[in-house]
Amino acid sequence: MRVLHLIDHMGMGGAQKVVLDFLELHGPAFEARALSLRHSVLPEAEARMRAAGVPFRSAGVRRGNPFSLVGLRGAIRAERADILHTHLEFSGTFGTLAALSLGRDRPLIVNHIHNDPNQRFTLLHRQAGRFSARRVEAHVVATAGIEQAARECFGRIPGRLAVVPYGIDRAWADRARSARDDSLRRGARVVLGAVGRLVSQKAFHLAVQTLPRILALEPTTRLWIIGAGPLREALAREARDHGVADSVEFFGQRSDLAPFYDSMDLFVLPSRYEATSLALLEAMASGVPVVSTRIAGVADVIEDGVNGLLVPPGDAPSLASAIERLIRDESLRARLAESARATMLRNHTREMMIENLESLYRELISARRAAQS
Question: Are 170 and 350 in contact, with CB atoms under 8 Å apart?
C-alpha cells in the first residue's frame, strides 16, 4: 500500500516532526513517500528521509498561482498512491482539490488537522474545509478537543474523523531523563523553559512578563527560550522593557533538546491555541512539571492539578501565580512530573501513533474494496 504524505513544506514545526515519524515508522505493508508544496526543507529532515529510504520531492506550488494546481495534480497522479495524506492548511486545500480532479482513479484522501481550525484557519480555508469535509474519506486530529473544533468549523463531516494522539519516541524519553547538563544553568537555582517556534501562537511574551514576580521570589531564576522564528527580536525587546533581559536566554533552534529538558525545573507553554504541542509531550516524557493554558489540545492531555497546572490563555498574572506555586512546593512538582510522564507512556508513544494511523488506512482501503466488489 503506497501512502503519499503531502505537506506545505519540510521546515521546522510540530507537523513536520510528526510527518517525519510517519515516514520513518510505517510498517512493511506501507510504502511511504513525501511531497511538499514548496521546496523548503531542513537539512535534518532531508537526512532523516534519506536514511529511511523515503522518496521526497517538491511540487513547486506558488501561492496565488492557479497554474500550480495543475502541476500538483500531475505530481500526485505520478506517485500512484493508494492514500494521499495531507498535512497543514494549504496542503489540505490544494491537495484535496488536485486529488479530486483525478476522478475515479484518485487516491483515498486523509486530511490531517494539526491545529485548532477555529483559531488558525482563514475564511478561505474554512470554506475550502467545508467543501472537502464532504468529499474526503477521513480527517485526523490529535485530541477530542480538536475533533470538536473541527466539527464546529466544518459542519457536517460524513467521512471518518479519527483521533490519533501524537507520540514521543520512548527511547528518547528514557535518554532525556539522564541528559542533565548543569553547565547550561550557569548557577541558576530555578530554570523555566519555553520550547517552540517564536510566533504569536505560542505567546512566549507572557512567560517574559511573569519574570519580575518570579525574580522577586528567586533572584537567580532564568527563562530559556528555545526555538527560532520571526518574534525573536520582539521577545528580546519585551525582556528589556520589563527589566529582565539579563534573566532571559535565547538558544535558537536545537536538534537534540534532551539536555535542555533534563536541566530545566519547569516547562512553560502559554499558547493561545494548539493541536497538541510536541514540546509539551517531550517535557512530560522528560519528567519536567508543566504549566500551560486551558485550551483545546492541551486540556485534553493535561488535567489541572493531576499531571500539570493550567491557567487561562492570555493571563500573565495567573501564569506567574502557577509558576510561583510550583517553585514553592517541591513535592507538588515531583508529583505532577511523575504523573505527566505516566500519561505520556500510557497514551503518547510513537508506536501507538503509527499503529492507530495504519489501522485507519487499512479500514479505508477495506471500505473501498468492499464498495468496488
Answer: yes
CA distance 251 to 32: 34
**159 and 204: one domain?**
no
Whole domain around residue 75: which residue ranges? Answer: 2-166+350-372
127 and 158 assigned to the same domain: yes
Instruction: State residue 63's pLDDT score.
Output: 66
Give 269-314 pLDDT, tens digit per residue: 999 999 899 999 999 999 999 999 999 999 999 999 999 999 999 9
Summarize the confidence of residues 147-157 as an average pLDDT. 88
Give the count of domains, the chain. Answer: 2
CA 308 to centroid of chain Cα atoms: 19
